[in-house]
Structures are given as structure tokens and as C-alpha cells.
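haha ok so turns out i had the wrong file open the whole time. this is the CORRECT one, sorry everyone. sequence first:
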Amino acid sequence: MKGILISSISLILLLVVSSCANKKDVLYFQDIEKLQNLDINKPDLLVDTGDILSIRLSALNPESTLPFQPISNSTESSSGGLTNFLVDPDGNIQYPVLGNIYVKGKSTREITQVIKDTIASFVKNPVLQVRLANFSISILGEVNAPGNYIIPNESITVLDALALAGDMTIFGKRQGVKVIRTTDNQKTYAELDFTSVDLINSPYFYLKQNDVIIVSPNNAQVQTSAVNRNISVIVSLVGLAISVLTVIAR
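then structure:
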């Protein structure tokens, strides 16, 4: 009888212990000593079809810029001096007076220079500001604050993104974080390992507009979920078995 009781308790303890996370599964950058030997190249964020560009044009003579501002019934929108331009399926924006300007595959820095060079024939000393207005990312799964986040500065890494989402929970799978990316209407993805600094060399380390980050639950969480659903049943069955055996033993 005593042996049965010990076996039952051991079974319950085994189920609980098997759901515990290993330290190696939850620590970031376990080979941090390699970090000092890595060269980090920050890529330019490139504009794609469907993006929205916010463009502000100014000059010493404000009247000289008026022809290049959208009229009130334009399909483009204007607010606070910024005019929003949608990148059409052909990769162009329709700019007043200048017409179609091809922007797909260019950085905002390159687009700024292209428009500035073109408009300089009409406006003396133009000042141009171009930024991506629809740069957002989505973060899902085992993080403390999942959701969609607007990125104002056109530069964010996966580490920054996790910080925005309040970091992974203790149950987040560090070695299989997925990043889904859309480029030219094609979906690609990568699985990132946050336990290694090699993550920094990934082309997915710097995020792009509309990237989706998915943090899956680790094995401990999956096992815990199964145990949490079944532990009460197991304990009840073990208790019933002990009661029956106690009665029989009498």
C-alpha cells in the first residue's frame, strides 16, 4: 500500500518537473563573447508598392511651392504640411506638376534626392522631407503585450520590437522566433535564434514594414498546458485508486 502511494506521488511530481523550463532555453545571447567580433550593417529601408510616403516641401519663398502642393480635391491627403502619397502597383507616386516619380526599391533618402533635384528647376533652395508613413509591425504569441506597432523612425530591430511588446514571457521559445515578410507580394519567413548573437547577422534582424513576428510557446509551456488540463483528472483517479486499494486491503 505504501509503495502504491509513493508511486502515485512520484507520478504527479514527474508530470510537474517535466514541465519546468531549462535555463538554456530562456537565456538570451548565451555566446555573448562573440558579439565584439561582429560587424553590423544596417540596410536601407526600401519602399514597396502599397506604401504611403509623407512628403513635406518648403522653401524660403513659400509661394513658389504652391504648384507642387495637392489641390483640395486631390486623391492625396495633406495634414500639418505633410502630404501623403500612395505608391501605386507600378511603383510610382503621382506628384503635382512633376507627374509620375518611380520610388519602388528606393530608400527615403534616395527619393528625397530625386525629387529635390527635379524640383530645383522650379523652386529655389527647396527643403524636402520624405518618410514612410505606414511603417508598422505586428508581434504575436508569447510576449507580454502583443499587437500592432507604428514605427516612427523607419529603423527597428527584432530586439527593439520585443522590447516594445514587453519582452517574451518566460514561456516564449527563444530558438524559433518566426518573422514573416512580404516583398513584391511574395511571403518569406525566417526562424531566429535569440540564444545566439548570430541573430545579428540575419537579414531579418532589421525589420521592414509590415513584418509579423510570432513567438511560439516553448516545450515547457506546451507540456504545462497539457498538465494543467489533465492534472485534476489524474489526481482524482490516483486518489480514487488509493481509496479503493485501501478498502480492499482492509
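The longest strand covers residues 52-58.
again sry for the mixup
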